[in-house]
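Input record, target 12 of the design panel.
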């Protein structure tokens, strides 16, 4: 983060035409901007134009700040300078009473900290009320992963090799082979895949570019899909996307989540599974087989290696279990 504004990390610049535009707070139910100046609008524009955050990330910031400002509304606060740490503590207590988890509260306070650092840098306030606030500890759970036999069952060739089955199987193979996010997968352009070189070019959070290799199995299923499945799905339509629907458009994340669920049931996998579980499995299996943490971080597109380290905890738990099971004095 930028030391002056708490600026989130961002990546390569894009043109104004391609840059995501944040939603207007005034369009939200309840209307969060009850101060005379449009401070929230300015902050969201800052996140979009300077920090170059993704639209979904900006929406998350906006939702957190709208929640806080709506909480303040009955208190008849008219100036930003009237907000202090007591208001923030009262808001956290309110969230806790509503049954909101520490993890969600931690995210909300993170949004508030960025907001007030921005206001301080813009000289809209003299002191940062978040400066003396303790961030609640989220108690981060370990990611859920599939075993390698479960992955093999999930990725087995479809019994019905119609065009949609070819597409779905290719998507599952590429997701596990690269560990990309589901939003990156469903919006992957056709030009972003190099079958000859065996890699994909992905633009992740903040439009940060990365190259991810994939193996022979994913290459083979992608080749079959692009030659035998994709043209029949499109019929006479054209599309720049790799994975298309019958309308030539991108699949929604929800629809792909449903496909993963259905494929897991057909494969006899009883544990809860989502596209993100395949991403977790990709990272965990790489580390289990000797990949270095930095390489996994780059392939996952994590800005901070601390985020990737959660997968080493999964691996160390399995090592500990094996030690206790097989060591004579375990």
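The sequence produced for target 12 reads:
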């Amino acid at each position: 983060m930028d030391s002056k504004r708490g600026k989130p990390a961002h990546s390569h610049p894009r043109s104004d035409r391609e840059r995501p535009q944040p939603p207007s707070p005034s369009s939200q139910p309840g209307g969060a901007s009850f101060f005379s100046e449009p401070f929230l609008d300015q902050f969201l524009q800052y996140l979009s134009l300077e920090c170059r955050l993704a639209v979904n990330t900006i929406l998350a910031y906006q939702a957190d700040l709208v929640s806080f400002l709506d909480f303040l509304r009955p208190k008849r606060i008219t100036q930003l300078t009237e907000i202090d740490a007591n208001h923030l503590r009262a808001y956290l207590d309110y969230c806790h009473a509503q049954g909101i988890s520490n993890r969600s509260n931690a995210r909300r306070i993170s949004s508030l900290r960025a907001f007030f650092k921005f206001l301080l840098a813009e000289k809209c306030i003299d002191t940062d009320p978040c400066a003396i606030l303790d961030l609640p500890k989220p108690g981060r759970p370990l990611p859920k992963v599939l075993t390698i036999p479960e992955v093999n069952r999930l990725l087995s060739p479809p019994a019905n090799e119609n065009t949609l089955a070819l597409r779905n199987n290719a998507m599952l193979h590429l997701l596990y082979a690269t560990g990309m996010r589901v939003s990156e997968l469903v919006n992957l352009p056709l030009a972003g895949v190099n079958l000859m070189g065996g890699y994909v070019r992905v633009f992740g959070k903040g439009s940060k570019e990365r190259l991810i290799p994939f193996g022979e199995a994913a290459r083979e299923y992608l080749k079959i899909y692009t030659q035998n499945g994709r043209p029949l799905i499109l019929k006479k339509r054209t599309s720049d996307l790799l994975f298309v629907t019958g309308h030539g458009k991108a699949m929604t994340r929800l629809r792909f989540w449903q496909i993963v669920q259905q494929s897991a049931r057909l494969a006899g996998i009883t544990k809860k599974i989502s596209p993100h579980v395949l991403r977790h499995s990709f990272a965990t299996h790489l580390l289990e087989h000797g990949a270095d943490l930095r390489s996994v971080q780059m392939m996952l597109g994590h800005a901070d290696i601390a985020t990737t380290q959660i997968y080493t905890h999964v691996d160390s738990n399995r090592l500990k279990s094996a030690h206790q099971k097989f060591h004579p004095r375990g």
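The two ends are 44 Å apart (CA to CA).
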